Amino acid sequence: VRQNAVSFLVTAAVIAVVFWKLDPVDTLKVVIGLGFIIFIHELGHFLAAKSCDVHVKTFSIGFGPAVPFCSYKWGETTYMLGVIPLGGYVSMVGEGTGESTPDGDPDDDDNDPRSFKNKPVGQRMLIISAGVIMNFILGMACFVAAYLHGVAEIPASAGVVGRGGGGWRGGGAAQQAHLSGWG
After folding, report:
1. Which ranges constitute the DSSP H helices of 22-149?
2. In angstroms, what CA-CA distances link 45 with 32, 69, 183?
3. 54-87 tens-digit pLDDT
4. How far is CA 68 from CA 5, 29, 74, 80, 105, in A?
5. Does residue 42 have an active-site annotation?
């Protein structure tokens, strides 16, 4: 509990502000929607890195320390939800500043064949571009879904005032013509 005391306090403060100043349901919708878009983006980087046989150390939705009880390791990768839900990251071996680590971590060895920086340029370009490509695919899927399940509208017609419409209710010339027998 002492290790995560700061995370608990920050999380409690954010929740208190949301309930005090904002509508919690709308805020939850925004967080879920933004989280889904971030997840799709980071999933693109992750899948591309795995397909190119790059060692992925961390897959995170959100920044900062992990939300308590929302971090687990499966295989060689740690999956987590960060405290600040405004982004995410995929941390790969060899993807850094190029400086050697002071603790001599063997995963960051320059000779590691699974290191990001030891992959060919084409594979590195694919890994870096995969997030944007996944966002583009998601956007196209949403576009298709919106047009498949759109709203039926009455087609436009020029020069005609429909009964019960705005022009009709306003008492315009068309209504007067209809009442006098001309329409």
Report:
1. 24-51, 121-148
2. 20, 24, 64
3. 999 999 998 888 888 889 999 899 999 888 778 8
4. 10, 22, 17, 10, 26
5. yes
Give the tens place of pLDDT for each residue, 85-124.
788 999 999 887 555 444 455 545 567 888 888 899 999 9
- Residue-by-residue DSSP string for 68-89: EEEEEEETTEEEEEEEEEEEEE
The pTM is what? 0.67
Which residues touch 7 (CB under 8 Å, ≥6 apart)?
Answer: 65, 66, 67, 68, 83
Q: Which residue type sits at 181?
A: G
Task: Let me know: does 90 contact 46? Beta carbons within 8 Å.
Answer: yes
Selected catalytic residue, list 42, 95, 99, 153? 42
